[in-house]
Write a structure and sequence with these properties.
Number of strands: 38
Organism: Limosa lapponica baueri
GO molecular function: integrin binding
Keywords: Cell adhesion, Cell membrane, Disulfide bond, Glycoprotein, Immunoglobulin domain, Membrane, Repeat, Signal, Transmembrane, Transmembrane helix
Shape: rod-shaped
Strand content: over 45%
Mean pLDDT: 84
Pfam families: C2-set, I-set, Ig_3
Distance between the termini: 186 Å
Subcellular location: Cell membrane
CATH topology of the largest domain: Immunoglobulin-like
Length: 528
């Protein structure tokens, strides 16, 4: 049998074939491959015999030329020559075309945060471009075109960073608008992507503060004891410094905190007042203020009554009673007076109650009531009207003309405030006899003709006094003296003991009174 042996012809190829586009900085590998030759030998060279700019590695049937990284020196036609034995030789070439467009543009805005009306400079940098003669750059602000530039006349032979600058006057409306840099490298008949790169950056303006307001939480007027939060809201770039202040009652200002939120966990009536939020932008050097008046709602508190000239006045004087109370809304003030029955009678509706020419019937308990929808509070005061003794009535029993040996009882009643003291004085040439009263009663026991004469009854208190004159005439003697004398002696003995005791008890009880007290010892020292 015969076997058919097929012998392949000697062939070669370059991979990739004919033409390749490579980006500067990348790695490029060219492969020269053979078939039909068991032991080929390889040779690489460039057009015009320039340096290879790469590394050759020969293998059994193929050879590689590695350029890592690819640079401008590699922009040539590369020729691979293969020898198979001494007789056979083959060659092929490949054209290496280079470009560089590695990254998106870089935008720089100066200043980074602008101020309204000031000049802003936009710089767009396109890194490592080659060939830059094809480069086209477009600057836009939002959709409007700011600037266009091409580098058609650029003859750079290396990959270089190209820069485009443009300046314009900013306005407040530019805040937040986008600056866009579009870089194009439209090289005809060169297959690479991308041929267009885009970068955008928003304009950041320094402005404000402006439109500063204070929000209050809760929105309804706060109640005492509840939490209260004040928030200062403003528009400013960069963020501003915020200071809270409060107007005090004496027109001074209290500094509170440096924060946009002022929190009061438990609001108090004293927290009411005018609050100021002061906003300061240290870059724009501008300041703006916002104010809010806070009134903490509460029921009446600290209700007080003041009385002018005093709670004890003389009859005929004018007295003014003023009621004050704190609360929000402002409490309504009304007055009422306690009647003899114990019930209260409404008499006046205002903070100040004035009584002209005070009378005795004006004395009593007065009550001030402070009221609003959140509660009420009451305070009371007792008005004392001091009246000198008046309406004095004197009774002499059995009469002003009596017989020797009889007892004479003198009874006196009067109206006064504070209560009156009474002293009976006997007008005598050598001396005066002073007798204190027992509940307004004086007793002359077993009178004699020596008791005949003029008596002065002095009724007095702290406000004034009144004097009544009594004339006693003792004539003759009582009949049946033997029967009357024992009775008189017995009655006189009891009275002699009882009268001083009663007088002492009355003195002690009156001395113990807070108002309208009277000293009997002082009364006994009075002279006519």
């Amino acid at each position: 049998m015969f076997s058919l042996i097929v012998v392949k012809a000697f062939e070669m190829e370059i991979i990739p074939a004919n033409r390749i586009v490579a980006q500067i900085g990348d790695t490029l590998i060219l492969t020269c491959n053979t078939t039909g030759c068991a032991s080929p030998s390889f040779s690489w060279r460039t057009q015009m015999d320039n340096p290879l700019g790469g590394t050759v590695n020969n293998h059994r049937t193929y050879s590689t030329l590695t350029m890592n990284p690819v640079s401008i020196v590699n922009s040539h036609d590369y020729l691979c020559t293969v020898f198979c034995g001494k007789q056979e030789k083959k060659e092929k070439s490949i054209k290496v075309e280079l470009y560089s467009f590695p990254s998106d543009p870089i935008i720089e805005i100066s200043p980074s945060s602008f101020v309204d009306g000031k000049q802003v400079t936009v710089t767009c940098k396109i890194p490592d471009v080659y060939p830059s003669a094809y480069l086209e750059v477009l600057l836009k602000k939002d959709k409007s075109i700011l600037h266009e530039k091409n580098f058609y006349d650029d003859d750079s032979t290396n990959a270089e960073t190209k820069t485009v600058k443009y300046s314009f006057n900013s306005t407040a409306e530019d805040m937040g608008k986008e600056i866009t840099c579009v870089a194009k490298l439209p090289i005809a008949n060169m297959d690479f992507e991308p041929k267009e790169r885009v970068t955008s950056q928003k304009l950041n303006a320094n402005f404000g503060p402006q439109n500063t307001v204070i929000t209050v939480s809760p929105e309804n007027p706060p109640m005492e004891g509840n939490p209260l939060s004040l928030t200062c809201v403003t528009e400013s770039n960069p963020p501003p410094r915020i200071v809270w202040r409060k107007h005090l009652a004496d027109e001074s200002i209290e500094r509170l905190i440096e924060n946009n939120v002022l929190s009061i966990p438990h609001a108090h009536f004293n927290d009411s007042g005018l609050y100021i939020c002061e906003v300061i932008n240290l870059v724009t050097n501008k300041t703006e203020k916002a104010t809010v008046n806070i009134v903490i709602q509460d029921g009446p508190k600290n209700t007080m009554i003041s009385v002018i000239p005093a709670t004890a006045v003389k009859e005929g004087e004018t007295v003014t009673m003023k009621c004050t109370s704190s609360g929000n809304p402002a409490p309504v003030i009304s007055w009422k007076k306690k009647k003899a029955t114990g019930e209260y009678e409404k008499i006046f509706k205002d903070a100040t109650l004035t009584i002209q020419s005070v009378k005795s019937q004006d004395l009593g308990l007065y009550e001030c009531e402070a009221y609003n929808q959140f509660g009420k509070e009451e305070k009371s005061v007792t008005l004392l009207v001091q009246v000198p003794p008046q309406n004095i009535t004197v009774l002499v029993y059995p009469s002003e003309n009596v017989k020797e040996g009889e007892n004479v009882t003198i009874t006196c009643s009067s109206y006064s405030n504070p209560p009156s003291q009474m002293v009976l004085k006997k007008v005598h040439q050598e001396k005066e006899i002073i007798l204190p009263s027992v509940n307004g009663t004086f007793i002359l026991y077993n009178v004699t003709k020596n008791d005949t004469g003029k008596y002065l009854l002095d009724v007095f208190n702290e406000v004034g006094n009144n004097i009544k004159v009594i004339e006693i005439a003792v004539v003759g003697r009582l009949e049946k003296p033997d029967q009357m004398i024992p009775l008189i002696i017995a009655f006189s003995s009891v009275a002699a003991i009882a009268v001083p005791v009663v007088a002492i008890l009355i003195y002690v009880s009156r001395k113990a009174k807070i108002n309208g007290s009277y000293s009997l010892v002082k009364a006994l020292r009075l002279k006519v």
